Structures are given as C-alpha cells and as structure tokens.
Amino acid sequence: MAKEKVTFEINKEKDFSNWYSEIVKKAELGDLRYNIKGFIVFQPWSVLAMEKMFDYLEEILQLKGHKPYWYPAVIPEKNFLMEKDHVKGFAPEVFWVTETGAGEKLEEKMALRPTSETAFYQMFSIWIRSYKDLPFKTYQRAQVFRYETKATKPFIRSREFYWIETHNAFDSRENALKQAKEDMETTKEFLWDQLAIPFIFFERPQWDKFPGAEFTFAADTLMPDGKIIQLPSTHIISQKFTKAFNVKFTNEKGEEEYCWTTCYGPAVSRIFAAMISIHGDNKGLIFPFNVASLQAVIVPIYNDKNKEKVLIEAEKVLNELRKNKIRSEIDLTDKTMGEKFYYWEMKGVPFRIDLGEKEIKEKKATVFRRDSGKKTIESISKLSEFILSEGKKQLKSLQEKTRKNFEQGIVSADSIEKAKKQLEKGKVVKAEFCGTSMDSAECAEKIEKELNASVRGTKFGENEKPTGKCIACGKKAEKVIYIAKSY
Ligand SMILES: [Zn+2]
C-alpha cells in the first residue's frame, strides 16, 4: 500500500487566503462538504482546541461572578419585536421556524437565536425584583444562527457559529460601564495572556453600534492579509431594552427603576480562526501551548529488533507527562519518520519528543519545539519540567512576534490618497477625523466608499488627540480614527 506523503508548504505571506483554505482542509479543522450552504462540520482538531478555549473563558467569567445558563435555541417572535432597533438590525439575518412536520403553521413564529438579549430579558423581568438581586450576571455557551449574505469562510463567517454571550443587569449606568471595562480585562486575559493575539479595543462610532446598544466596544485584531477581524465586543445596552421588557428593580428607597444592561460576546470559533491565522506559518499550524489539545507528541524511533523496548520506554515517558498534566500521545502509526515529522508540524503540536534506542541508553530524548524549530537534548527524568517551562517561553515568544507585526501593521495617513496607498499595502490606517457622533456619519460614508474599507472607531481609553484636519471634509479634527479593510 502506498503511503500518502503528508507535506504542507504554502507561502502564507504571498497567498494568505489559499493558505487558510488549505490548512483548514489539511489539518482537518472543518469540512465544508456538509450539504447546506453556509454550514460546516467542525472536526476534532478544531473542536478539541475550542473546548480548551471555552474552558478558559468560562473559568474567567465564573470567577468574575457570571452564572451559566442554557436557554432555548428558539425565541418567540413577540420577544423579537419588543425593541425596534434590535429588530431592524437583526431581522434580515433571522432563520424563522414556522411550521411543524405535519405541515401545520405554528401559532407564533420562532427565531433560531441570532443572539439572545430578547430571550434573557424576558426572564430577567421575572427574576429581578430588588436591588438585592443586582448585579445579575449571566452567560451561556451556545451556537447562534445568522443568515449571512456575505461570502462565508470557515470559522470566520458562517451561518452558525459558536460563542459565549453574557447578559448582565445593573442598578446604574456607572455599574454597567464598569462591567464593560471588566469585559475588556477579560478579553485581555484571554486573547493576549492565553492566545497571544494582540488587539485594540475600539469604541465603535454611533452609526456602527450593535442594534439597540448605547455604546459598542470591540476588540479588533489584524489578520496576515492586512484585514481587520472583529473579536469580542461588549455593549452597553442602556435602558432601552429594559424598558421594552419591563426589567425593573426596587431601589433602597423603595422606588422602582429600570435596570441597566450589558452584553459581551466572544465568538470562540472566530477567535480560533484569528489564532490559527496569526500564528501559523508555511509549514502549518502553531498552537499556543495552553490551548493546544495535544501539547506534546512522542515519536518512537525503532526497528523490528528494538521495537518492544522503545515502546515500553515511550509508554513510561507518556505516563510521566500525563501525570504532570501535559496533554500527550505516542504516535503509533506506521508512517515513515519524515511523514510523522511533517504531520505533527502541520498540526501545530507545540512539542515533539523523539525517542530512539540510542537516546534511551543515555536516558535522554530530543525535544523539538514547533514555533522556533529549536531542538534540545534533555534528560528523560526532566522532560515534564522542561516542557512546562518551555511552554511558557513559547507563549512569550509568540506574543513578542505578534505584537511586533501588529504594531508594524498600523500607519498614519493625512489624506485619502495616502490612506488608499497604505490600505493597498495591507496596512491599517490611523487618521484624523471630524467626530464620531451621527454628524460625522457622512464623512465616514465618504471614506468607506472611496477606500472600500471601514471606519473601526476610536481607540478606547487612550484619548488620542488630533492636531490637524478631518481626512474627509477638511474641518478641524476632533478624533483619531482607524480605517481598515475588514472581514
Ligand atoms: Zn469630516
């Protein structure tokens, strides 16, 4: 039987789009051949990593006081119609469930949830009574459905995606704002501390908010092709929704008030897409150590004579690694050595441990680190210790690399012409602009039309001061904005 040679060599810098499609296929992350357009099958190699990502996020959220819920995937139409901006924003993307298998029309249409504010708030109105119930912090891990009309791309945009949505109620606007800041902290603890994904938190301009929100803050990162991708966003919903849904509490003075709410939506499948895109190289994937579903793979090197001996030793090494909570496996396939090496490089496993008779005799093993390509000979008794400490270094060095690329990806421009040139080179453009209230929506429209790019907003928390004129209308600039091509 001819063995398939597993190689992966695609120039990511030259042709990112092709690299991405190929790695999704080759590493068996998702299968696009499911027979409904816009939906894909998520395969074990992506699911296992995303499970780890969910674990991290849920742990952080629970430590910050959010309680998990599982809501129905269907939302009655009347909930949906309660808040007009929300309906307007989401209506075109909703999948409606309208009839039974027996062909009977349902009494009321139900939406497959595109997001669950209108499901959560309906119950909030029942559960929340007094200031003593607040803050009321919830979340659910769920998939949502949106009838996307833009071209779909696995993990980046599809008609069903996996996320966490938090929904929270507070007794004041101030506490709602505090929550948004806490969400930004959570984003940092997750995206940067665990996944080495650099990002900027933008305050979205008024014309580009989540439908029904007062403020929207979103973390954007830069993909290798120079396009921005939106990762988690957090929204101050204000009292619009709580008035619509009658979510009230009695304050300490015995008076009734409407709650203030926020929501936060890290789309894990999309974050996964950004992570593999940013870290991968021409040989394939590179998983950050903490979310790699397999952190170390042992490749035993043997012949017919010493096979048993080598495998016994490999088993011992495996047990030791597992005892130290390093997710590991032995490669027992009958592929050639070369094929095994290519395969695990392509799959992005952070460490490979090569173990042969010679090494065993010397009580040593060769450890190959995927991201740096560095090989180290380490004594078998210290393998776990070594891998755990190198795992931390791996994360640090991924951070250094991605931070540098991110910073180099942002440049300033003081005219539409210059901005255009930079965008063509795959850069994000920083520019001065007249404002972010609805008054400036026209300028933004002009920019977006002429540059075929989007205005991402202002950098949150930095209060960047402009000194010149609006790039679009020439009036005195009030804000510094960022313009980018986006997913
Ligand atoms: Zn302007």
Kindly summarize this structure in a few lines:
The chain is of the alpha+beta class and 487 residues long. It has 14 helices and 23 strands. 35% of the residues lie in helices and 25% in strands.
Question: Please, could you describe this protein's structure?
Answer:
There is one protein chain. By secondary structure, the chain is of the alpha+beta class. It folds into 3 domains: about 15-280, BirA Bifunctional Protein, domain 2 (2-Layer Sandwich); about 295-390, Anticodon-binding domain (Rossmann fold, 3-Layer(aba) Sandwich); about 410-485, C-terminal domain of ProRS (Translation Initiation Factor IF3), CATH 3.30.110.30. About 35% of the residues lie in helices and about 25% in strands. The chain has 14 helices and 23 strands. The chain has helices at about 15-25, 45-65, 75-80, 85-90, 115-125, 175-190, 240-245, 270-280, 305-325, 335-345, 355-360, 385-410, 415-425, 440-450, and strands spanning about 30, 40, 65-70, 75, 95-100, 105-110, 135-145, 160-170, 200-205, 215-220, 230-240, 250, 255-260, 260-265, 295-300, 330, 350-355, 365-370, 375-380, 410, 430-435, 455-460, 480-485. β15 (about 295-300), α9 (about 305-325) and β16 form a beta-alpha-beta unit. The model has no long low-confidence stretch (mean pLDDT about 95). Bound molecules: zinc ion. Zinc ion binds near residues 434, 443, 470 and 472.
Amount of helix: 25-40%
Overall mean pLDDT:
94
Tally of strands: 23
Summarize the biggest pleated sheet.
11 strands, mixed
Walk across the major sheet and give the strand order. 3-7-8-14-11-10-9-22-23-21-20
Shape: globular
Separate helix tally: 14
β content, as a range? 25-35%
Radius of gyration: 25 Å
CATH class of the largest domain: Alpha Beta
According to CATH, the fold-level topology of the largest domain is: BirA Bifunctional Protein, domain 2
> Helix- and strand-based class?
alpha+beta
Question: Please, how many domains?
Answer: 3
Q: Which ligands accompany this protein? A: zinc ion
**How far apart are the termini?**
43 Å
The CATH superfamily label of the largest domain reads Bira Bifunctional Protein, Domain 2
